[in-house]
Amino acid sequence: xxxxxxxxxxxxxxxxxxxxxxxxxxxxxxxxxxxxxxxxxxxxxxxxxxxxxxxxxxxxxxxxxxxxxxxxxxxxxxxxxxxxxxxxxxxxxxxxxxxxxxxxxxxxxxxxxxxxxxxxxxxxxxxxxxxxxxxxxxxxxxxxxxxxxxxxxxxxxxxxxxxxxxxxxxxxxxxxxxxxxxxxxxxxxxxxxxxxxxxxxxxxxxxxxxxxxxxxxxxxxxxxxxxxxxxxxxxxxxxxxxxxxxxxxxxxxxxxxxxxxxxxxxxxxxxxxxxxxxxxxxxxxxxxxxxxxxxxxxxxxxxxxxxxxxxxxxxxxxxxxxxxxxxxxxxxxxxxxxxxxxxxxxxxxxxxxxxxxxxxxxxxxxxxxxxxxxxxxxxxxxxxxxxxxxxxxxxxxxxxxxxxxxxxxxx
Length: 411
Ligand code: F3S
Description:
Layout: H1 5-12, H2 17-32, E1 38-40, E2 44-46, H3 54-66, E3 75-77, H4 94-109, E4 134-135, H5 138-147, H6 157-166, E5 168-170, E6 184-188, H7 195-209, E7 214-217, H8 225-238, E8 245-246, H9 256-259, E9 270-273, H10 275-284, E10 295-298, H11 305-315, E11 318-320, E12 325-330, H12 332-341, H13 343-349, E13 353-356, H14 367-370, E14 375-378, H15 381-389, E15 394-397, H16 400-407, E16 408-410
Helix pairs in contact: 1-2, 2-6, 3-4, 5-8, 7-8, 7-10, 11-13
């Protein structure tokens, strides 16, 4: 790799051992992917700032902080397993809580913004178009690449930390124009009615695209940010998609030709998503009925204030049934807004809970089984995937409107 003078000085140790180690790591990653140079990054997002990082990951973060590491660009953190306020009610021990706090402290000591959300762009951390960033976690990667038009690969915890410590990332993959063009087209014929339908489309498309960049056509130009936010994560759950285009909507796709980089899409790479696909994909995600659910998880990816308003409208005037718990995951900053505006009191008066800092995938492997949550109802394909494939719970999948009568009663 060709390094500029400042980067070479980082490798030589001029800026201390932590920066040296970080730049060595980035050079090794860059060489692995045949990157020719580094690019400056505007920000980083860290997944693994929690117990999911394992003992080794936690030690690595603490060593960087104890070694005097300071982030050169803003670094935000992904959600953890526990709500920092409601951890006891969630069944976590004080040991787990203190462990989480010690990692958060280490990140804060280096100048990180411990927001514990997978939607940092909702609380003021939205990179500009064409800006290079180093983000981990698939939903924020997809939002950054597709919706904001900024540029990131899917970073692991160490490489995101190293990018924040040096302000650099190796220039390969989605940092390069040629890798951002669409390779297949999915024409949508089905009428999509809410964010959950967009999530279902994402799950369908992820299974076709795998690791390629899909181009969606047939979607309305009025598509909301919330629907785009819902479309992204399932693309990376069923497949491993890191970027997508919606013609006439996302910033790199003013036309189909621009989205594909003016390359012709082969007929074998053109697909349709019709009403039958919508129904079949939705049904394929359920392994149980909503009447069997004892836990409902909503808000994956973390919701906007508009989505919280919708949950409040659907739940208003109802009470959560005695044998059921409803969790609505939420960025802490949005929770405070929801409290001020009045959506939080509506939701909480039903018995549903707003949990901040929390990700259903970050839970310990035996969490759901140990707590007796055998069947989970959710409006998120990503929650279905992580709770049923890795955590031994069965799921019902659908929009809250479809099953609200089953898990709540009239107040
Ligand atoms: Fe966010 Fe966790 Fe869902 S990172 S997208 S809440 S699985």
